[in-house]
Amino acid sequence: MKKPMTYIDSVHRDGTIWNLSVMVLLFAFPVAVAMIFGVTPDWNALLVGLIATAPMYWTVGAIETVTYVPMLGAGGSYLSFVTGNISNLKMPCALNALEQNEVSASSEEGEVISTIAIAVSSIVTTLIIILGVILIVPLTPVLSAPVLQPAFEQMLPALFGGLGVAFVSKNWKIAVAPVILMLALFVCVPALNEGTVGIMVPVSALFTIAVARILYKKGVL
Amino acid sequence: MAFHINHPVLFIIVGLLIAVVLGQSVYFLVKALKRSKELGMDQQKIKKTMKTAAIFTIAPAVAIVISVITLSKNLGLPLPWLRLSVVGSMSYETIAANNALSAMGQSLGSATALTAQQYVNVLLVMTISIMLGIWLVPAIGKKLQNGMKSMENRDAKWADTFQSALFIGMISAFLGFVFCNVSRLWTAENGIVTEMSSGFAENGDKIQVEKLFTAASGLVPVCTMVVSALVMVVCGLLMRKPKLKWLSEYALPISLIAGMAAAIPLTALFGMEVK
User: Fold this and answer.
1) What is the tens place of the pLDDT at every residue in A52-91?
2) Measured between CB atoms, which of B39, B161, B263 is closest to A153?
Protein backbone atom coordinates (compact mmCIF):
# COMPACT_ATOMS: atom_id res chain seq x y z
CA MET A 1 0.00 0.00 0.00
CA LYS A 2 1.20 3.49 -0.78
CA LYS A 3 2.10 5.66 2.16
CA PRO A 4 -0.35 8.58 2.58
CA MET A 5 1.18 11.88 1.53
CA THR A 6 2.12 14.24 4.35
CA TYR A 7 1.22 17.93 4.22
CA ILE A 8 4.85 18.91 3.56
CA ASP A 9 5.10 16.38 0.71
CA SER A 10 2.00 17.83 -0.92
CA VAL A 11 3.44 21.35 -0.52
CA HIS A 12 6.57 20.22 -2.39
CA ARG A 13 4.50 18.57 -5.13
CA ASP A 14 2.18 21.56 -5.64
CA GLY A 15 5.03 24.05 -5.30
CA THR A 16 7.03 22.26 -7.99
CA ILE A 17 4.08 22.30 -10.38
CA TRP A 18 3.35 25.98 -9.72
CA ASN A 19 6.94 27.19 -9.93
CA LEU A 20 7.76 25.31 -13.11
CA SER A 21 4.50 26.53 -14.71
CA VAL A 22 5.26 30.14 -13.76
CA MET A 23 8.76 29.70 -15.18
CA VAL A 24 7.37 28.51 -18.53
CA LEU A 25 4.85 31.38 -18.57
CA LEU A 26 7.52 33.99 -17.83
CA PHE A 27 9.46 32.70 -20.84
CA ALA A 28 6.30 32.81 -22.93
CA PHE A 29 6.17 36.62 -22.52
CA PRO A 30 9.25 37.49 -24.65
CA VAL A 31 8.35 34.70 -27.11
CA ALA A 32 4.83 36.09 -27.49
CA VAL A 33 6.09 39.66 -27.97
CA ALA A 34 8.55 38.46 -30.63
CA MET A 35 5.80 36.58 -32.49
CA ILE A 36 3.10 39.24 -32.23
CA PHE A 37 5.38 42.04 -33.44
CA GLY A 38 7.20 39.84 -35.94
CA VAL A 39 10.77 40.23 -34.68
CA THR A 40 13.53 37.81 -33.73
CA PRO A 41 15.94 38.50 -30.87
CA ASP A 42 19.37 39.89 -31.69
CA TRP A 43 21.12 36.63 -30.73
CA ASN A 44 24.68 37.99 -30.54
CA ALA A 45 23.63 40.92 -28.38
CA LEU A 46 21.55 38.55 -26.26
CA LEU A 47 24.60 36.38 -25.60
CA VAL A 48 26.72 39.41 -24.69
CA GLY A 49 23.94 40.77 -22.44
CA LEU A 50 23.53 37.42 -20.72
CA ILE A 51 27.24 36.95 -20.11
CA ALA A 52 27.30 40.37 -18.45
CA THR A 53 24.26 39.64 -16.27
CA ALA A 54 23.51 35.98 -15.69
CA PRO A 55 26.64 34.62 -13.91
CA MET A 56 26.36 37.20 -11.14
CA TYR A 57 22.62 36.73 -10.64
CA TRP A 58 22.80 32.94 -10.85
CA THR A 59 25.45 32.96 -8.12
CA VAL A 60 23.32 35.25 -5.97
CA GLY A 61 20.23 33.13 -6.72
CA ALA A 62 21.98 29.91 -5.68
CA ILE A 63 23.30 31.45 -2.46
CA GLU A 64 19.89 32.94 -1.66
CA THR A 65 18.15 29.62 -2.19
CA VAL A 66 20.44 27.76 0.20
CA THR A 67 20.29 30.56 2.80
CA TYR A 68 16.61 31.41 2.72
CA VAL A 69 14.85 28.07 2.14
CA PRO A 70 15.60 26.78 5.68
CA MET A 71 14.28 30.08 7.08
CA LEU A 72 11.15 30.49 4.94
CA GLY A 73 9.80 26.94 5.21
CA ALA A 74 8.59 24.90 2.22
CA GLY A 75 5.41 26.76 1.17
CA GLY A 76 6.99 30.13 1.94
CA SER A 77 10.01 29.31 -0.25
CA TYR A 78 8.03 28.32 -3.34
CA LEU A 79 6.02 31.54 -3.08
CA SER A 80 8.91 33.85 -2.15
CA PHE A 81 11.14 32.75 -5.00
CA VAL A 82 8.34 33.51 -7.46
CA THR A 83 7.14 36.79 -5.97
CA GLY A 84 10.52 38.18 -4.87
CA ASN A 85 11.36 40.95 -2.37
CA ILE A 86 12.56 38.30 0.05
CA SER A 87 14.89 40.11 2.44
CA ASN A 88 13.00 43.41 2.47
CA LEU A 89 9.47 42.03 2.76
CA LYS A 90 8.71 38.29 2.82
CA MET A 91 11.38 37.29 5.33
CA PRO A 92 10.61 40.03 7.91
CA CYS A 93 6.91 39.26 7.48
CA ALA A 94 7.42 35.54 8.15
CA LEU A 95 9.79 36.23 11.07
CA ASN A 96 7.31 38.59 12.69
CA ALA A 97 4.48 36.08 12.28
CA LEU A 98 6.53 33.26 13.86
CA GLU A 99 7.45 35.56 16.74
CA GLN A 100 3.85 36.74 17.19
CA ASN A 101 2.56 33.16 17.34
CA GLU A 102 5.48 31.87 19.40
CA VAL A 103 5.97 28.84 17.17
CA SER A 104 9.27 27.37 16.03
CA ALA A 105 10.07 27.73 12.35
CA SER A 106 10.95 24.05 12.09
CA SER A 107 7.58 22.81 13.40
CA GLU A 108 4.61 22.15 11.13
CA GLU A 109 2.74 25.00 12.85
CA GLY A 110 5.68 27.25 11.94
CA GLU A 111 5.52 26.04 8.34
CA VAL A 112 1.80 26.87 8.18
CA ILE A 113 2.22 30.29 9.85
CA SER A 114 5.07 31.41 7.60
CA THR A 115 3.20 30.24 4.48
CA ILE A 116 0.11 32.21 5.54
CA ALA A 117 2.13 35.37 6.29
CA ILE A 118 4.08 35.18 3.02
CA ALA A 119 0.98 34.40 0.94
CA VAL A 120 -0.95 37.34 2.44
CA SER A 121 2.03 39.61 1.91
CA SER A 122 2.35 38.48 -1.73
CA ILE A 123 -1.35 39.02 -2.39
CA VAL A 124 -1.36 42.49 -0.81
CA THR A 125 1.80 43.48 -2.71
CA THR A 126 0.37 42.33 -6.04
CA LEU A 127 -2.92 44.16 -5.40
CA ILE A 128 -1.18 47.39 -4.35
CA ILE A 129 0.99 47.30 -7.49
CA ILE A 130 -2.13 46.76 -9.63
CA LEU A 131 -3.72 49.75 -7.90
CA GLY A 132 -0.55 51.75 -8.49
CA VAL A 133 -0.55 50.86 -12.19
CA ILE A 134 -4.21 51.85 -12.59
CA LEU A 135 -3.76 55.09 -10.66
CA ILE A 136 -0.32 55.92 -12.03
CA VAL A 137 -1.33 59.34 -13.37
CA PRO A 138 -2.69 60.83 -10.12
CA LEU A 139 -0.17 58.88 -7.97
CA THR A 140 3.05 59.87 -9.73
CA PRO A 141 3.25 63.45 -8.39
CA VAL A 142 2.38 62.30 -4.85
CA LEU A 143 4.78 59.34 -4.65
CA SER A 144 7.65 61.11 -6.37
CA ALA A 145 7.29 64.20 -4.14
CA PRO A 146 10.81 65.14 -2.98
CA VAL A 147 9.63 65.44 0.63
CA LEU A 148 8.75 61.72 0.77
CA GLN A 149 11.90 60.50 -0.96
CA PRO A 150 14.08 60.19 2.21
CA ALA A 151 11.39 58.06 3.88
CA PHE A 152 11.49 55.44 1.12
CA GLU A 153 15.28 55.62 0.81
CA GLN A 154 15.59 54.63 4.48
CA MET A 155 13.06 51.81 4.43
CA LEU A 156 15.57 49.03 5.16
CA PRO A 157 17.07 50.72 8.25
CA ALA A 158 13.54 51.50 9.49
CA LEU A 159 12.57 47.86 8.97
CA PHE A 160 15.60 46.20 10.54
CA GLY A 161 15.57 48.52 13.59
CA GLY A 162 12.25 47.15 14.80
CA LEU A 163 12.93 43.59 13.68
CA GLY A 164 16.43 43.69 15.19
CA VAL A 165 15.15 44.65 18.64
CA ALA A 166 12.60 41.84 18.62
CA PHE A 167 15.10 39.15 17.63
CA VAL A 168 18.38 40.32 19.11
CA SER A 169 16.87 40.85 22.56
CA LYS A 170 15.50 37.30 22.54
CA ASN A 171 18.75 35.70 21.38
CA TRP A 172 21.33 38.23 22.58
CA LYS A 173 23.94 35.62 23.51
CA ILE A 174 24.11 34.38 19.91
CA ALA A 175 23.78 37.89 18.49
CA VAL A 176 26.66 39.77 20.17
CA ALA A 177 29.51 38.39 18.05
CA PRO A 178 27.87 38.57 14.58
CA VAL A 179 26.47 42.07 15.18
CA ILE A 180 29.93 43.35 16.21
CA LEU A 181 31.64 41.58 13.28
CA MET A 182 29.15 42.89 10.69
CA LEU A 183 29.30 46.43 12.12
CA ALA A 184 33.09 46.43 11.95
CA LEU A 185 33.13 45.00 8.40
CA PHE A 186 30.55 47.39 6.99
CA VAL A 187 32.14 50.44 8.62
CA CYS A 188 35.72 49.57 7.61
CA VAL A 189 35.37 47.92 4.18
CA PRO A 190 34.26 50.48 1.56
CA ALA A 191 33.19 47.77 -0.91
CA LEU A 192 30.40 46.67 1.42
CA ASN A 193 27.25 48.63 0.65
CA GLU A 194 23.65 48.22 -0.42
CA GLY A 195 24.71 46.22 -3.48
CA THR A 196 26.78 43.69 -1.55
CA VAL A 197 24.68 43.19 1.59
CA GLY A 198 23.06 40.17 -0.09
CA ILE A 199 26.43 38.44 -0.28
CA MET A 200 27.11 39.17 3.38
CA VAL A 201 23.90 37.47 4.54
CA PRO A 202 25.21 33.89 4.06
CA VAL A 203 28.65 34.90 5.42
CA SER A 204 27.02 36.30 8.52
CA ALA A 205 24.65 33.32 8.80
CA LEU A 206 27.53 30.80 8.67
CA PHE A 207 29.50 32.79 11.24
CA THR A 208 26.48 33.00 13.55
CA ILE A 209 25.87 29.25 13.26
CA ALA A 210 29.51 28.60 14.19
CA VAL A 211 29.24 30.92 17.20
CA ALA A 212 25.95 29.33 18.23
CA ARG A 213 27.47 25.83 17.94
CA ILE A 214 30.38 26.75 20.23
CA LEU A 215 28.04 28.34 22.80
CA TYR A 216 25.70 25.36 22.56
CA LYS A 217 28.51 22.85 23.13
CA LYS A 218 29.72 24.85 26.12
CA GLY A 219 26.19 24.83 27.50
CA VAL A 220 25.91 28.63 27.57
CA LEU A 221 22.59 28.70 25.71
CA MET B 1 1.58 45.72 -35.65
CA ALA B 2 3.52 48.84 -34.72
CA PHE B 3 5.37 48.32 -31.45
CA HIS B 4 5.62 50.68 -28.54
CA ILE B 5 6.53 50.05 -24.91
CA ASN B 6 2.99 50.74 -23.67
CA HIS B 7 1.15 48.72 -26.33
CA PRO B 8 -2.22 47.39 -25.05
CA VAL B 9 -1.21 43.84 -26.03
CA LEU B 10 1.65 44.02 -23.52
CA PHE B 11 -0.78 45.05 -20.77
CA ILE B 12 -3.00 42.07 -21.58
CA ILE B 13 -0.16 39.51 -21.50
CA VAL B 14 1.29 40.95 -18.29
CA GLY B 15 -2.17 41.08 -16.69
CA LEU B 16 -2.66 37.37 -17.41
CA LEU B 17 0.76 36.42 -16.03
CA ILE B 18 0.15 38.40 -12.84
CA ALA B 19 -3.24 36.71 -12.45
CA VAL B 20 -1.44 33.33 -12.45
CA VAL B 21 1.09 34.48 -9.84
CA LEU B 22 -1.77 35.86 -7.72
CA GLY B 23 -3.48 32.48 -8.17
CA GLN B 24 -0.44 30.70 -6.74
CA SER B 25 -0.46 32.92 -3.62
CA VAL B 26 -4.19 32.35 -3.10
CA TYR B 27 -3.75 28.59 -3.61
CA PHE B 28 -1.01 28.33 -0.98
CA LEU B 29 -2.94 30.58 1.41
CA VAL B 30 -6.05 28.37 1.20
CA LYS B 31 -3.95 25.22 1.53
CA ALA B 32 -2.14 26.51 4.64
CA LEU B 33 -5.40 27.77 6.20
CA LYS B 34 -6.98 24.34 5.74
CA ARG B 35 -3.97 22.69 7.33
CA SER B 36 -4.08 25.10 10.27
CA LYS B 37 -7.64 23.95 10.99
CA GLU B 38 -6.61 20.29 10.76
CA LEU B 39 -3.80 20.96 13.22
CA GLY B 40 -6.30 22.63 15.56
CA MET B 41 -4.45 25.95 15.59
CA ASP B 42 -6.15 28.96 17.19
CA GLN B 43 -8.05 30.56 14.26
CA GLN B 44 -8.28 33.88 16.13
CA LYS B 45 -4.48 34.02 16.13
CA ILE B 46 -4.33 33.06 12.44
CA LYS B 47 -6.65 35.97 11.62
CA LYS B 48 -4.37 38.32 13.57
CA THR B 49 -1.34 36.97 11.72
CA MET B 50 -3.01 37.70 8.39
CA LYS B 51 -3.97 41.20 9.47
CA THR B 52 -0.43 42.02 10.65
CA ALA B 53 1.11 40.64 7.46
CA ALA B 54 -1.25 42.74 5.33
CA ILE B 55 -0.67 45.98 7.27
CA PHE B 56 3.07 45.47 7.43
CA THR B 57 3.23 44.92 3.65
CA ILE B 58 1.66 48.28 2.71
CA ALA B 59 4.72 50.56 3.08
CA PRO B 60 7.21 48.23 1.31
CA ALA B 61 4.62 47.64 -1.44
CA VAL B 62 4.22 51.39 -1.98
CA ALA B 63 8.02 51.56 -2.31
CA ILE B 64 7.74 48.91 -5.06
CA VAL B 65 5.09 51.03 -6.82
CA ILE B 66 7.58 53.92 -6.80
CA SER B 67 10.14 51.65 -8.50
CA VAL B 68 7.54 50.68 -11.13
CA ILE B 69 6.86 54.37 -11.82
CA THR B 70 10.59 55.15 -12.08
CA LEU B 71 11.32 52.27 -14.46
CA SER B 72 8.20 52.93 -16.56
CA LYS B 73 9.73 56.13 -17.94
CA ASN B 74 12.15 54.13 -20.10
CA LEU B 75 10.67 50.63 -20.22
CA GLY B 76 6.95 51.41 -20.39
CA LEU B 77 4.50 50.37 -17.70
CA PRO B 78 3.82 46.65 -18.47
CA LEU B 79 7.43 45.44 -18.16
CA PRO B 80 8.25 46.83 -14.68
CA TRP B 81 4.71 45.95 -13.56
CA LEU B 82 5.45 42.29 -14.28
CA ARG B 83 9.09 42.25 -13.22
CA LEU B 84 8.42 43.85 -9.83
CA SER B 85 5.34 41.68 -9.19
CA VAL B 86 7.55 38.61 -9.58
CA VAL B 87 11.19 38.16 -8.53
CA GLY B 88 13.15 41.27 -9.34
CA SER B 89 13.98 44.65 -7.97
CA MET B 90 14.61 48.18 -9.11
CA SER B 91 18.38 47.80 -9.16
CA TYR B 92 18.34 44.34 -10.70
CA GLU B 93 16.03 45.29 -13.59
CA THR B 94 18.03 48.47 -14.27
CA ILE B 95 21.30 46.53 -14.48
CA ALA B 96 19.78 43.75 -16.60
CA ALA B 97 18.12 46.22 -18.99
CA ASN B 98 21.33 48.22 -19.34
CA ASN B 99 23.43 45.12 -19.98
CA ALA B 100 20.99 43.94 -22.63
CA LEU B 101 20.86 47.35 -24.33
CA SER B 102 24.55 48.14 -24.05
CA ALA B 103 25.22 44.98 -26.11
CA MET B 104 23.09 46.64 -28.80
CA GLY B 105 24.88 49.98 -28.54
CA GLN B 106 22.13 51.69 -26.57
CA SER B 107 21.36 52.52 -22.98
CA LEU B 108 18.35 52.87 -20.75
CA GLY B 109 17.13 56.44 -20.93
CA SER B 110 18.79 57.38 -24.20
CA ALA B 111 16.64 59.56 -26.43
CA THR B 112 15.40 56.93 -28.91
CA ALA B 113 12.45 54.74 -27.93
CA LEU B 114 12.97 50.98 -27.66
CA THR B 115 12.27 48.84 -30.72
CA ALA B 116 10.44 45.51 -30.46
CA GLN B 117 13.71 43.64 -30.92
CA GLN B 118 15.45 45.58 -28.15
CA TYR B 119 12.43 45.01 -25.92
CA VAL B 120 12.56 41.25 -26.52
CA ASN B 121 16.29 41.20 -25.77
CA VAL B 122 15.79 43.13 -22.52
CA LEU B 123 13.01 40.73 -21.49
CA LEU B 124 15.08 37.64 -22.29
CA VAL B 125 18.13 38.86 -20.35
CA MET B 126 15.96 39.74 -17.34
CA THR B 127 14.00 36.48 -17.44
CA ILE B 128 16.92 34.09 -17.96
CA SER B 129 19.18 35.78 -15.41
CA ILE B 130 16.64 35.67 -12.59
CA MET B 131 15.28 32.21 -13.37
CA LEU B 132 17.59 30.25 -11.12
CA GLY B 133 15.76 30.74 -7.82
CA ILE B 134 12.34 29.82 -9.24
CA TRP B 135 13.80 26.59 -10.61
CA LEU B 136 16.24 25.80 -7.80
CA VAL B 137 13.59 25.73 -5.04
CA PRO B 138 11.73 22.81 -6.68
CA ALA B 139 15.10 21.19 -7.49
CA ILE B 140 16.75 21.25 -4.06
CA GLY B 141 14.18 22.77 -1.67
CA LYS B 142 12.95 19.38 -0.47
CA LYS B 143 16.50 18.17 0.23
CA LEU B 144 17.27 21.32 2.24
CA GLN B 145 14.05 20.94 4.23
CA ASN B 146 14.73 17.25 4.87
CA GLY B 147 18.20 18.17 6.10
CA MET B 148 16.63 20.52 8.64
CA LYS B 149 14.14 17.82 9.62
CA SER B 150 16.77 15.15 10.26
CA MET B 151 18.76 17.66 12.32
CA GLU B 152 15.64 18.19 14.41
CA ASN B 153 15.17 14.47 14.90
CA ARG B 154 18.76 14.09 16.10
CA ASP B 155 18.78 17.10 18.45
CA ALA B 156 15.66 19.24 18.65
CA LYS B 157 17.22 21.93 20.85
CA TRP B 158 20.17 22.43 18.52
CA ALA B 159 17.81 22.55 15.49
CA ASP B 160 15.95 25.39 17.19
CA THR B 161 19.19 27.21 17.98
CA PHE B 162 20.38 26.66 14.40
CA GLN B 163 17.20 28.29 13.10
CA SER B 164 17.59 31.29 15.43
CA ALA B 165 21.25 31.57 14.37
CA LEU B 166 20.20 31.77 10.71
CA PHE B 167 17.73 34.57 11.48
CA ILE B 168 20.23 36.44 13.66
CA GLY B 169 22.88 36.05 10.97
CA MET B 170 20.64 37.62 8.37
CA ILE B 171 19.56 40.47 10.67
CA SER B 172 23.21 41.14 11.68
CA ALA B 173 24.21 41.55 8.03
CA PHE B 174 21.49 44.15 7.54
CA LEU B 175 22.34 45.91 10.81
CA GLY B 176 25.92 46.15 9.57
CA PHE B 177 24.69 47.51 6.24
CA VAL B 178 22.94 50.36 8.08
CA PHE B 179 26.39 51.56 9.17
CA CYS B 180 28.07 51.23 5.76
CA ASN B 181 28.32 54.98 5.13
CA VAL B 182 29.30 56.10 8.64
CA SER B 183 32.93 56.24 7.44
CA ARG B 184 31.99 59.36 5.45
CA LEU B 185 32.40 61.19 8.78
CA TRP B 186 36.18 60.79 8.69
CA THR B 187 36.83 60.42 4.97
CA ALA B 188 35.17 63.75 4.14
CA GLU B 189 37.18 66.70 2.94
CA ASN B 190 35.65 70.09 3.78
CA GLY B 191 32.48 68.26 4.79
CA ILE B 192 31.99 66.63 1.38
CA VAL B 193 32.66 63.05 0.25
CA THR B 194 33.10 62.21 -3.43
CA GLU B 195 32.07 58.69 -4.39
CA MET B 196 32.28 57.02 -7.79
CA SER B 197 29.51 54.78 -8.96
CA SER B 198 29.13 53.03 -12.28
CA GLY B 199 26.61 54.32 -14.77
CA PHE B 200 25.92 54.13 -18.47
CA ALA B 201 26.60 56.69 -21.21
CA GLU B 202 24.10 57.46 -23.99
CA ASN B 203 25.78 54.93 -26.32
CA GLY B 204 25.65 52.14 -23.74
CA ASP B 205 29.28 52.39 -22.58
CA LYS B 206 29.92 51.83 -18.90
CA ILE B 207 31.22 55.00 -17.28
CA GLN B 208 32.07 56.23 -13.78
CA VAL B 209 29.72 58.84 -12.35
CA GLU B 210 30.80 61.16 -9.54
CA LYS B 211 28.42 61.64 -6.63
CA LEU B 212 28.88 64.04 -3.73
CA PHE B 213 27.60 63.37 -0.21
CA THR B 214 27.65 65.34 3.05
CA ALA B 215 29.98 63.95 5.76
CA ALA B 216 27.11 63.31 8.18
CA SER B 217 24.85 61.62 5.59
CA GLY B 218 25.97 58.19 6.82
CA LEU B 219 24.25 58.90 10.12
CA VAL B 220 20.79 59.13 8.53
CA PRO B 221 20.25 55.34 8.25
CA VAL B 222 21.81 54.79 11.70
CA CYS B 223 19.49 57.29 13.40
CA THR B 224 16.51 56.00 11.40
CA MET B 225 17.24 52.52 12.69
CA VAL B 226 17.59 53.78 16.28
CA VAL B 227 14.20 55.54 16.09
CA SER B 228 12.57 52.38 14.73
CA ALA B 229 14.25 50.26 17.43
CA LEU B 230 13.18 52.63 20.21
CA VAL B 231 9.57 52.65 18.98
CA MET B 232 9.68 48.84 19.00
CA VAL B 233 10.95 48.85 22.60
CA VAL B 234 8.18 51.26 23.65
CA CYS B 235 5.58 49.06 21.91
CA GLY B 236 7.05 46.03 23.69
CA LEU B 237 6.70 47.73 27.08
CA LEU B 238 3.18 48.98 26.40
CA MET B 239 2.08 45.53 25.19
CA ARG B 240 2.58 44.17 28.69
CA LYS B 241 -0.50 46.08 29.87
CA PRO B 242 -3.54 43.89 29.22
CA LYS B 243 -5.47 46.82 27.76
CA LEU B 244 -2.76 47.42 25.14
CA LYS B 245 -2.16 43.81 24.15
CA TRP B 246 -3.60 44.56 20.69
CA LEU B 247 -0.40 46.52 20.00
CA SER B 248 1.44 43.27 19.33
CA GLU B 249 -0.27 43.06 15.95
CA TYR B 250 0.91 46.51 14.96
CA ALA B 251 4.34 46.79 16.61
CA LEU B 252 6.41 46.04 13.49
CA PRO B 253 4.36 48.18 11.06
CA ILE B 254 4.35 51.05 13.59
CA SER B 255 8.13 50.95 14.09
CA LEU B 256 8.65 50.73 10.30
CA ILE B 257 6.48 53.78 9.61
CA ALA B 258 7.95 55.72 12.55
CA GLY B 259 11.48 55.07 11.27
CA MET B 260 10.56 56.07 7.71
CA ALA B 261 8.85 59.25 8.95
CA ALA B 262 11.89 60.10 11.09
CA ALA B 263 14.13 59.76 8.03
CA ILE B 264 12.58 62.92 6.54
CA PRO B 265 13.76 65.38 9.27
CA LEU B 266 16.97 63.33 9.75
CA THR B 267 17.87 63.72 6.08
CA ALA B 268 17.14 67.45 6.32
CA LEU B 269 19.40 67.67 9.39
CA PHE B 270 22.39 65.57 8.26
CA GLY B 271 22.09 66.11 4.50
CA MET B 272 22.45 63.45 1.80
CA GLU B 273 23.54 63.81 -1.79
CA VAL B 274 24.95 67.23 -2.73
CA LYS B 275 23.66 68.22 -6.15
Assistant:
1) 889 888 988 898 899 899 889 999 999 999 998 888 899 9
2) B263
